[in-house]
Amino acid sequence: MFRYHKVIIDYLTSRQYSELMKRNLPPLNALRAFEAAARNLSVSLAAAELSVSPAAISHQIRLFEDFIGLAVLERAGRGIALTDAGRAALAHIQAGFSQFQAAMDAVDSLGETGTLNVSVAPSFASKWLLPRLHDFQTQHPQIDVIVSASVQLVDFTRDSVDVAIRYGAGAYPDLHSEKLLAESVYPVCSPELLKSGAALNTPGDLAAHMLLHDDSPDNDPSCPGWDHWLRAAGHSDFDSTRGPRFNQASMVLESAIMGRGVALAKSTLAEADIAAGRLVRLFSTEVAVNFAYYIVAPKSKLNLPKVSHFRDWLHSQVKEAQLQKALFFTDRLNNVAA
């Protein structure tokens, strides 16, 4: 690929190319028609190859001859033959088409290798993306992924970012955005706390436990705190404001894993820890939020293969996670029933 790039760049910056661009060139269709007819020594075969009529091929060849002022083909019995001008032109035209093909091959290969710069919120990076990223790298070893974890919205041009995963409302002016994952919240705690701590049979039992608070700077007015969730669960008769607060959702989950209290967790971020047995979901009440996770990218980068591969992989991971979640809860229900 890089050899092609160098050939193209050297040619496009050469005096030969500069002088060529100053001259008038014959229509590309005329050159294609002549090259096909000259290579096959047949107008009908050229027409079949280019999916046009023989009359169209003949018309394009006449345009080429009128442009250069010389005949390039002549009758030879029942077929055609190249004139001296035709033979002189054919080799250079074919060389030119080869260079065009090399250019197109180089353009097609752009983004298949190299680096993919991904911007993502820290908690989503640590709890959802990073545990899965090895799978993408196994499928696409030619792409080196650079993950930049930040709560700030990046400037794609200034920061050289190819694609981002953002938690928000999905409105990003002048950028392409597509929904990846919805979000909701529910309480979780460690298995040890559930086993040895005060009872956690109903939401009202939370009054006897330390509540862990997620104060992530998401600017999401729809994301419920403990007071909102408790009202939804029908229990708002105790002070739910107490307890430590964290500005990253991943820190809330880690604190819960260590048995420090009960966390009100974002479901997307907690699923892996629940599946691994590090956390246990409590109660059936789950409150949906309006914000979601979106794939965001400049429209100019959507068709880069490395970006397309990453988008397709993200969606496949979501489908797989949803299937695993369904199987996990089915197994739990079967175990309870047994």
Structure description:
This protein is α/β, with parallel strands linked by helices and 338 residues long. The protein has three domains: 108 residues, Winged helix-like DNA-binding domain superfamily/Winged helix DNA-binding domain (Arc Repressor Mutant, subunit A, Orthogonal Bundle), CATH 1.10.10; 102 residues, D-Maltodextrin-Binding Protein, domain 2 (3-Layer(aba) Sandwich); 108 residues, D-Maltodextrin-Binding Protein, domain 2 (3-Layer(aba) Sandwich), CATH 3.40.190.10. 48% of the residues lie in helices and 20% in strands. The strands form two sheets. Strands 3, 4, 5, 6, 7, 8, 9, 10 and 11 form a nine-stranded mixed β-sheet that branches. The chain has a two-stranded antiparallel ribbon with strand order 1-2. The protein is rod-shaped, with a radius of gyration of 32 Å. The protein starts with a helix and ends with a helix.
